[in-house]
């Protein structure tokens, strides 16, 4: 993979690489990326989908790469973590440079920290902000709610930029300044997309982009350019403008008119904007334009925090109303009802393929990698969604480098074929009983992946009632994901239940995760407006919309979810699918072929026995690295700001199993290594070892070379 990445960078030809867990793919792209950065004097950019992978690269992979390459390159390669503005504390907001949130949480926290959780969170945030070096939210453990975090952060549109009185001390500006001269910049898909699409130049000039977790790119890009509008948003913008405009009452009325127009509508896609909604949107657009003019600061004056907050809110509702009214050819408009916010009007592009082709692939060499890029043995499906197919598509190559794991021996894929197919009424009693039996057999150690937040919360509540204190059950939403995952990894008796984020962002090797539960096939919802619009468009062109959209979506999610189980060569366990359609449906074979090649079974008794044995034999959990203070570049640092070249936590202990050396998919045991040493001393031929171990010659040769052994054949060397 490293050679393929280096060739892509040299040739300018884009590369798609499928690389299974454990292949070391981050090292395979970081080394050539660093080499190129040294050669051309520009940074390479690495974009990931999850915070967990960003932390892994900055805390573990880049320090090792930097240490290894320093003697070769003459200096230690440098790197930085760059995030969106909302991830950092705003010092100007802390100092009162912006108006308080409409709920007045800051004043609550200042008056009496005991009045409730939100007040306590805000007080703790202010104390933390006075000591942090980076201002990065991820450094704060335990985390705080989104409502509390809004009190100390601003969006890019709300920021005063260079006109801010505290710009010289700003965490964001200092972090981005520090990132200008590094060799590798680590960021996320959304930040990279905004930088590419909006031309804000938040990232330094670069000609190499690596997109890790690339299976998520389309969804993250789509989310970045999805807009929404509610009556309450319009009325809030009017409140923000306040006395700075003479037209705020008219804007407030426009918000009420929009709320009234949306209220009677049913959820779902709009094939055209209803007249009542169109009139309300036109009123919002035109009134917002007038208020925009009023909010311009008087001649010779700069915008203060209150005016900037108001302008950002009014700009957003103006742009979103105008976009919906334009009814662009590829835009999909739909309405959904939020339990807290009421009817929400949303608009998103049906496809981002041409946008990604023009804005992401045009100016640089792009390497995309993931454990799940191939579906049905080809990259075509993924390539089509990102603009790499069709007329005018740029040149690219695809490569599957396989996996080092012996999946059939390491894991069982169990389908609970006796359960009824899932219905729309939530998780049935039979399925809850199945979950209880599996989790008890595993002794906890369970990651539960559910198709909806409601299903995860319901299962968590039921299991807590049944298990009591014997097996703790954590549920997504109760704290930051990173905090929950650390708790789960630290205590092998614990279970962690959740939805979409956990399907792809959890890396818990070792005995803490020996059972992965998947409650149902993760198809898009039947009323998902984007999925249905894409399916219909494909069907109109003569294709199979269900297989191209719904089944493909489910296959990617299943592969990612099942991939949470086996993270290294000595991991063992079960992935339990509680959806009998995995065996009975006409598309079952397609879904099964998208999974790692685990040992398949529907034998419940065998699975329960296997889980019980694994629980009884389980080694201690892998040491969990705790969060650390960070420097401006995102590297770990002491309280005094001194950077650590390596993570401060102790490395994980050696695995209890000796199956830690893997060649060609085979995990070697201590006993087999002894046999190889005896064979070398006795003068056995390589062909005899092939017959003895029933393994490929390449696998045996690779292990002999690792052990420094010579066998009587011209093919091997000391």
From TrEMBL:
Catalytic activity line of the entry: ATP + H2O = ADP + phosphate + H(+)
Similarity comment: Belongs to the helicase family. DinG subfamily.
Organism: Terrabacter aeriphilus
Positions of transmembrane segments: none
Region called Disordered, residue ranges: 637-666
Signal sequence region: none
Lineage, broadest ranks: Bacteria, Bacillati, Actinomycetota, Actinomycetes, Micrococcales
Record keywords: ATP-binding, Helicase, Hydrolase, Nucleotide-binding
InterPro entries (UniProt xref): ATP-dep_Helicase_C, DEAD/DEAH_box_helicase_dom, DinG/Rad3-like, Helic_SF1/SF2_ATP-bd_DinG/Rad3, Helicase_ATP-bd, P-loop_NTPase
Cofactor: [4Fe-4S] cluster
Molecular-function annotations in GO: helicase activity
Highest taxon listed in the record's lineage: Bacteria
Biased composition (Basic and acidic residues): 637-646
Domain Helicase ATP-binding, residue spans: 1-269
Protein name, per record: DNA 5'-3' helicase
Enzyme Commission number: 5.6.2.3
